[in-house]
Amino acid sequence: METFGITDRTKIYGAEVRPVPGIGFGMFATKNLEVGDIVMIEYPVIEIGHAGSIAELCDRYFSLPPAELRTVDALHCDPTKLEDAIANPQHQDNVYRWVHKKQRAGEFLPETDTHQVAWLLLRLWALFWTNCSATPNNKSGLYPAFSRANHSCRPNVTWPIEMMDGEAKLTMTATREIRAGQEIFVTYCSSMRTLPLKERRSKLMNWGFTCRCELCTSEEEKLAHGGRSLRPRR
What we know:
By secondary structure, the protein is α+β, with helices and mostly antiparallel strands. Helices cover 36% and strands 22% of the residues. Among the domains are: 90 residues, no CATH class; 42 residues, no CATH class. The strands form 3 sheets. Strands 1, 4, 9, 10 and 11 form a 5-stranded antiparallel beta sheet that branches. Strands 2-3-12-8 form a 4-stranded mixed beta sheet. Strand 2 and strand 3 form a beta hairpin. Helix 3 crosses helix 5 and helix 4 packs across helix 5. The chain starts with 9 loop residues before the first strand and ends in an 8-residue tail after the last helix.
């Protein structure tokens, strides 16, 4: 059974990840959720320093069990971030240096297609920075199931990350009633609801999309009819 991002590092309650036509994936309630209900608890499958190197990321990646490798590989990778990674000479040098080091150590066969491996690792770098979240221990962590949840400028859950027994624990909690079958939305930036539409969409371009959530669509319609900028209600 395909779990779409659920690993042994994830505990999910009353929700599931499933495909969304035209978007990719989303997280949906499988039962009625009340305010304060815990939707999910997740720990990162990969965690590196904020200034972490490609070598550090590759080492963490190749230490994962096969099932988690497949889960990471299946996550969305922002094409712009991939183009930037491929065009960065320093990234390319670091990747080839890492691959050659592994070949000398006998971890990759000499006949391994170095260029293909290098491309895959540059994609891994772009994929990680597409999906990672900052953690309280000054690192960035990859939470696969959380990465499947879509953004809204009016989210219906919170997702604080706190240190617990030395690990960065993400807890997703309902902030509004969510009926069974409804989509669960997170926000990619905490200040979104207080910003005007244009500023919100500008910030979200960092994730490679134009936001068309309920709040943005409503404000867009008001602007089209009123001809002036409206701030969202608090």
